[in-house]
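User: I'm new to structure prediction. If I give you an amino acid sequence, what do you actually give back? Let's try with this one:
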Amino acid sequence: MFFKQLKSVSIKKNIALILKQRLRDFKSSKVQSVGIIFDYEAFHDYDFFHDLLKDLGIRKNNIRFIAKINSEKKQPNSWDAFFSSKDFDWLGKHKNPEIDEFIEQPFDVLISYYKKQTLELNLITALSKANFKIGLNNEDDRLHDFIIEVDPLKIAIFKTELIKYLTTLNRL
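Assistant: Good question. You get back a string of structure tokens that encode the predicted 3D arrangement of the chain. For your 172 residues, that looks like this:
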């Protein structure tokens, strides 16, 4: 119990430090690569993401996924990468090479497709080298550059809003 509390405090502290140091240097180029991070237990419609990005004109090889799963036994085969809470030590440092690979990718856009605040998801979002970060929750507005306030299960609304705002920002 003590280590879980220490882990939680450490992750929150890491997120705060990362967000304090973050430089927002947006490139106004068209979106070519997209990273998607989500909670597999809350939403796992793989086809929705592929259809959405296909409609945005993003090639399949420029899309990367990472999902948080609650149990290693439930790990599906169709996603790029997975992690669980066990992939973080008691100091809040990740020890999964798939997380390293994901956060080092310089995506044009990162979509954080989760509503429920999860420290591990927030940490990976904060660590990501993505140029522009889009999220669904606004509990910490420093985490994302743009927030679309919509329920994750309302995929049609999210798709419409994402296309509308990326077009308005001249990113499509």
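You can read the tokens as a compact description of the fold. Here is one thing that stands out. The mean pLDDT is 85.
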